Amino acid sequence: MSVPNSPPSRSMKSFARLFVASLVVVLVWGWFLPWVSHHRSVKQRLDFLDARGIDPSAMFYTELDVMDEILDELEGRASNPKQ
Amino acid sequence: MQDVITDESDTASKTRSKLSDDWLAIGCAWLLLIVSFVAVLSCSKVREPDLASIEFIAVNPLADFIGKPSKWTNRPVNAFVKKTESGALDWGSTTGVLGAFIVLATLLAAAIRYRDGQGGGLRFLLGFVGVFALATLSYTLAAQSVVKAYNLEYALWALMVGLILCNTIGTPKWVQPAVRTEFFIKTGLVLLGAEVLMSRLLALGLPGIFVAWVVTPIVLISTYVFGQKVLKIESRSLNMVISADMSVCGVSAAIAAAAACKAKKEELSLAIGMSLSFTVIMMVVLPVIIKAIGLNETIGGAWMGGTIDSTGAVAAAGATLGDRALEVAATVKMIQNILIGVSAFGIATYWVTSVEKDPDADRPRLAEIWIRFPKFVLGFIAASILFSILHGTLTEGPELVDSMIKGSTKTLRGWFFCLAFVSIGLETKFSELTPYLRGGKPLILYLCGQTLNLILTLAMAYLMFGVLFSDFIK
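Predict the joint structure of the above. Result:
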């Protein structure tokens, strides 16, 4: 027979779940990802993308720095100082 | 007299309360576009470094005050403050985030107050502090170098952050008045309209048009029809959102299609989750396949540009093959990006004239079409047309429009989408997502559609860049 949770214990469970989820986020972003980014192959890839002005998480072409260079060339413009 | 004034003010307030999210979104987005463009126009200057040459310098004075968390690798705090080479602390990102908060909080709270009254505006403002804080956290998670390098866009983390809160302790009551998914999405989309510059359509000439604008609609329509006739997917909107994000350009197309066909938030979440997962696989696998089969860089670039969903992932995959592949891939994807406007308009029109029409009536009347039509699409198209004209006709149009986009509107558009995905997460229980995963039909639809996309795009890229316009390669 299951006993329904009383509101305080449900609330404790909810906060415990939030705590666990937050802990996972902190561990992954605070330790695991920085550790991975120092691996040689990963670092090489990050440097390679940086050097070319590529952000692989760009959602639209206007978010890609490399597009400036490509468009300047395709549209026959010299690179202009812009802000 | 007092009575008359009360009556008039009641009528005005009733009219305002009828103002839909669409019109409110159009108003907010256009105000941001106009202010940004005027700011660039008034601060830009002409310089004459010597007698023979004149240099135009486009300056966006808002650029330093509107930003988002920066890329970081080791410490999340670097998303907000960085050490410069001289050892001083650079607080530029913090200023940018605070500036974006002030602009958005002021504008949106004023808009909500205008429509819902003073109480509504204040409740929104209080809740907005919470939603914006979660959006900032999402952006910080998305700004980690490795996360960025594998195309795991902020939309994913914004959804995750919202979902975690909603499915553990629940969305706090004081945050709920600012959970306005539709309003954020529509405002972001109208701002995006200014980035859809038709004048860039011919950047690769006819071959680019054929790869990006002929194959893409064929794949979109075929996938949708396949989902309806063969897979018999119950939700037409889910079918459409998956078809659009897979054939056009990933997350941004999914957002536009979902808003145009009034898809449910769970459907948009599912489509984006699938698109991002397959994009990660394709950006790694496609360059390997192209190298293995010895495909020419230009054809390979066009193939990747037409098939990999996300814009950033296309550039990353193209760069792996070489500079030429990067150039062609990124440009084909840019031309496909421009298709967003046409596809959103087409989907919205199809929806109101065919899907939502009265089954007993032969043809829906124009008035009915107008009532049902998502008006934000008009604001989106109008922004695209106006800024395309400014970009194409003014002598310094490209500099002015690019400076406006890069300095302010692009960043604000990103915040709107991020706020929208946090809101979706805050409104979604995991149990609401599971029915969509049963039977695996969405996955089958995506796989079949992407297979068709890969075959047709390769054939078209080969025909255009390898046979008909082979000079292009040389």
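The mean pLDDT of chain A is 82.
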